[in-house]
Each structure stands twice: as structure tokens, then as C-alpha cells.
Automatic annotation (TrEMBL):
Its main location: membrane. Residues 31-210 form the ABC transmembrane type-1 domain. It is a multi-pass membrane protein. The chain crosses the membrane at residues 37-55, 62-82, 88-109, 156-180, 192-213. It is found in: Cell membrane; Membrane. The keyword Disulfide bond does not apply. Keywords: Membrane, Transmembrane, Transmembrane helix, Transport. SUPFAM superfamilies: MetI-like. The keyword Transcription does not apply. It comes from Streptomyces bangladeshensis. It comes from the Bacteria. This is ABC transporter permease subunit. The lineage of its organism: Bacteria, Bacillati, Actinomycetota, Actinomycetes, Kitasatosporales. Belongs to the binding-protein-dependent transport system permease family.
Length: 226
């Protein structure tokens, strides 16, 4: 009788310390790419979403079209979205970032707009009475008061982006998704599990960081609850 191999890699076990030690650099590179793609896509999405939400708040006729377009974009399957963007970006990281930006707009625009709409009208009138112009009113009154709703949308969009980055493996830019995809094709258990767990840890860490930032920049919400 042949003795079973004493190496967890040879036995293809789900939990394998040898995999972590021997593929440390591969895991680190995939992790860094995953975080970079997530951060860049959410940042660009936020930069685009804020003016869209402000536009929809300032002119009520624009709210319907803005929300409709961003909602339709969110319903497009990821594979179809990447295929539609392929002629513009080719097989590049930009293709994945562009797709994730479009997906993030629904969550970001809707929540930022909800936050702006929730600002009490009497607060706006009081600010105008103190001589606040439209830009100063927006930057120092409306946007700060809209932060709780906006941060809620940002947290959801970030966690969603962490998940959707893995789909970028179909074009070779999926961060940890590349390892998951390759591991599933070869039934490499340790690789699939390790990369999947790291994805979850990134999502949890990002959510906790944003929650901490939200508590830090919106101290009045804690005072109100107290």
C-alpha cells in the first residue's frame, strides 16, 4: 500500500499552510491589484456621482433621467458590460475600472440624492438668510448634512466593488479573482479558499474603515442618538 503524501499541497487540501508560504508573493500581488481596482473605481464613481446627484437635486426634471440611466446600467450583467466596453478600453485594467464605475453610480447617486433631499428646507432658508450663496450653501450646509446617507451608499458601493472586481478575471485583471478563476479550473482547493477568504477580509476591512470615517466626520449623528 502506498503511503499518502505528507504535503498538504500534494493532497490538495482546502486549508494548507504550505500554499501560503510558497505563494506569498503571488497572493500579495493579487491582493494589491484587487485593492487598487476597488479604490480607483469607487473614487472615480464618487467624483462622477456627486455632481449628478447635485444636478438632480437642483433641477427636479433631471432626477428621473439620472436615476433611470444609472439604474439601467446596474441591471446590465457584468459579462455584457465588459463586452460593451471592450472596444473602448481593450483587455486592460481600465476596462474593469470603467465597468465598476458604472455599476457604482446607482448606489452612490441614489444615496447622495436622498441625503440632499433630506436636508430640512428651514435649514436652507436660514443659511440663505445669513447670506449664503448657492455654492457656499451646498459645500457647508447641504453636503455635510447629506453625509450619513452618502456614506451609507459609499459603503455598499465599496463592498459591491470588492465582489465585482473578481469578475475582471475574465479579462485577466481581477485581482484575487484571477486566483479564484484559475483555482476553480484546476480544482486547486487551497488557492480557491485562500483567495475567497481574502476577498471577504478586504470587504469587511473596507466597510469597517468607512464606518469609522463616517463616525469621525459626522459626530452630530452620535449626539442625536444619545
Amino acid at each position: 500500500m502506498t503511503a499518502p503524501p505528507d504535503d498538504c499541497l500534494a493532497r490538495n487540501e482546502w486549508i494548507c499552510g504550505a500554499y501560503l508560504s510558497s505563494r506569498r508573493q503571488i497572493l500579495l500581488d493579487a491582493l494589491v491589484q484587487h485593492v487598487q481596482l476597488t479604490f480607483l473605481s469607487v473614487l472615480i464613481g464618487l467624483v462622477v456621482a456627486v455632481p449628478l446627484a447635485v444636478l438632480a437635486r437642483r433641477w427636479s426634471w433631471a432626477a428621473g433621467p439620472v436615476l433611470a440611466v444609472t439604474t439601467v446600467l446596474y441591471t446590465i450583467p457584468s459579462l455584457a458590460m465588459f463586452s460593451l466596453l471592450l472596444p473602448l478600453y481593450g483587455l486592460s485594467a481600465g476596462l474593469v475600472v470603467a465597468g465598476l464605475v458604472l455599476y457604482s453610480l446607482t448606489l452612490l447617486v441614489r444615496n447622495i440624492l436622498a441625503g440632499l433631499r433630506a436636508v430640512p428646507e428651514e435649514t436652507r432658508q436660514a443659511a440663505r438668510g445669513l447670506g449664503y450663496g448657492p455654492v457656499r450653501l451646498l459645500l457647508t450646509v447641504e453636503l455635510p448634512l447629506a453625509l450619513p446617507a452618502a456614506m451609507a451608499g459609499l459603503r455598499i458601493a465599496t463592498v459591491s466593488a470588492v465582489s465585482l472586481v473578481t469578475v475582471g478575471a475574465i479579462v485577466g485583471f481581477g485581482g484575487l479573482g484571477n486566483l479564484i478563476y484559475a483555482g476553480m479550473n484546476t480544482y486547486f482547493k487551497a488557492q480557491v479558499l485562500t483567495a475567497s477568504v481574502l476577498c471577504v477580509l478586504i470587504a469587511v476591512a473596507a466597510d469597517l474603515l468607512l464606518l469609522g470615517a463616517q463616525r469621525l466626520i459626522t459626530p452630530w449623528t452620535r449626539a442625536a442618538r444619545a
